[in-house]
Design a protein that fits this description.
With 117 residues, this protein is α+β, with helices and mostly antiparallel strands. The chain folds into 2 domains: 51 residues; 55 residues, no CATH class. Helices cover 38% and strands 10% of the residues. A 3-stranded antiparallel sheet has the order 1-2-3, with no helix packed on it. A hairpin with a 2-residue loop joins strand 1 and strand 2. Helix 1 packs antiparallel against helix 2. The radius of gyration is 32 Å and the shape is rod-shaped.
């Protein structure tokens, strides 16, 4: 939509300038001058409106789904330090890596993928 506004504004400004220049020829034609000024003002308004439009994706809420490495079974998912039961709510993505924070002892560690063989 932004590109359409800019293209339409360029066309209106071009024709507006042409009308103003044509009106300033040997015999001043006031109607052409006013039409040209109005076209230029509408074109400038379209440029202003096009620049005020929000970019796509700006301000949107992003949900990140964490895909745990390897086959993690939640019934055996325990803290390495205290052995407390952990859930998926205890896992957060920090700098692209899944990190677990134990709600019982406060230990924080990164999940590592165990070899599948």
């Amino acid at each position: 939509m932004k590109i359409v506004a800019y293209i339409l504004a360029a066309i209106l400004i071009l024709f507006g300038v042409l009308f103003v220049l044509a009106s300033l020829n040997q015999a001043f034609i006031p109607t052409w001058f006013f039409i040209g000024v109005i076209l230029v003002l509408i074109g400038l308004a379209l440029v202003w409106l096009g620049s005020r439009q929000k970019k796509a994706g700006q301000g949107d809420i992003v949900n990140v789904k964490i895909d745990l490495p390897a086959n993690v079974e939640l019934d055996k998912f325990q803290c390495k330090n205290c052995g407390g039961a952990l859930t998926t709510d205890n896992i957060k993505l920090v700098q692209g890596a899944p990190v677990v924070t134990c709600p019982y002892c406060g230990t924080t560690y990164q999940l590592t993928e165990e070899p599948k063989w």
